[in-house]
Inverse folding.
């Protein structure tokens, strides 16, 4: 399964990337990616419909409690927070 991030969805919606790049069957996104992309305050109106359509085409992966409860897992300044593995990030 390929998991796409926010920028890929934005580039697909505005035509910078072609749809042939996401022609494979097992493509997903995190619900956090969807919220981030659709909630961006400066997104052009003409990109909202294509973005919504793209998100509806692919699998939505909800984050697990380990991601939601510890959003600072990427902050390397915190001691002993461990490493979040991809298989632990999504239900």
């Amino acid at each position: 399964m390929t998991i796409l991030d926010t920028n890929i969805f934005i580039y697909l919606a505005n035509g910078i990337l072609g749809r042939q790049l996401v022609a494979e069957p097992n493509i997903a996104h995190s619900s956090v990616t969807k919220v981030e992309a659709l909630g961006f305050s400066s997104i052009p109106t003409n990109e909202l419909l294509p973005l919504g359509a793209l998100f509806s085409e692919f699998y939505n992966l909800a984050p697990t409690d380990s991601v939601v409860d510890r959003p600072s897992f990427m902050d390397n300044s915190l001691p002993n927070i461990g490493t979040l593995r991809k298989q632990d990030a999504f239900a």
In short: The CA atoms of residues 23 and 58 lie 11 Å apart. The first strand starts at residue 2 and ends at 4. The chain has five helices and three strands. The first helix runs from residue 6 to 13.
